[in-house]
Amino acid sequence: MADPMRIRAQAAGGNATVRVLMSHEMETGQRKDSAGKVIPAWHITDVTATLNGKPVMSAEWGPAVAKNPFLQFTLKGAKAGDKVAITWKDNKGDTRTDEAVVS
Prior knowledge:
103 residues; mainly beta; Immunoglobulin-like; 3-stranded antiparallel sheet; 7 strands; elongated
């Protein structure tokens, strides 16, 4: 399983800025190793975010996203103490979910 995501959610006014650093290799399937064999594709395909259990964001990604991707978005109506959960799924079926509390 992948390393935990680093999630930071900070409230300002009626909004919260959420910053997420995901740990994932994100191989495109186009690179070759030192022996000349193609490295198989392995990348995040779906990302979702929830605020207190309610879906607030979803995204579909492909192989063109960089290694250890960074995601930032703004949540309207979020306040200190709310829980933000981020989930990703990759093309091999692995998933990871991590949570943070809005500060």
